[in-house]
Amino acid sequence: MPKAARKTTTAKAKKSEKIDPITVALDRCNGANRIFFDRARAADEQPDNQTAERQLARALASSERCGWELATTEPTTLAGASAMLTYIVDGPAVGLFDVGEMDWHETAFRTVTRALAKLARESRPAQAA
Q1: What is the spatial distance between Cα 75 and Cα 53, in angstroms, rounded to a whole number?
Q2: CA–CA gap between residue 34 and residue 32 (Å, rounded)
Q3: Hey, where are the domains in the chain?
Q4: Please, which residues bridge with residue 5 across strands?
Q5: 123 vs 21, 77, 116, 120, CA distance in Å?
Q6: pTM confidence score
């Protein structure tokens, strides 16, 4: 097969593979959390610095928005559902918050439960008539 044809075939194959939307949401949350933790360290190192405090407040709000985005994004694969549960239970803030303490935790558990039920229904073999 010519090199150009291989590239086209590979590109089509990659394009047809769907990325679980939870992967995108998790990437965003991880990025927002890294920024939040960086801002928290900076605020601790510079007490009484109003700019650092404002940056920390904005980073916290961004992290919280990402949590809600994650909580309302339904995984489409078992791996995505597993990743979502792992993030909720063992996410970057382990030790800072208990499971259920964040407002979006309950919504996230309901979303992943709904997704798992849907995946289970889709994986059942069709019954003969």
Answers
A1: 35
A2: 5
A3: 20-120
A4: none
A5: 19, 11, 10, 5
A6: 0.73
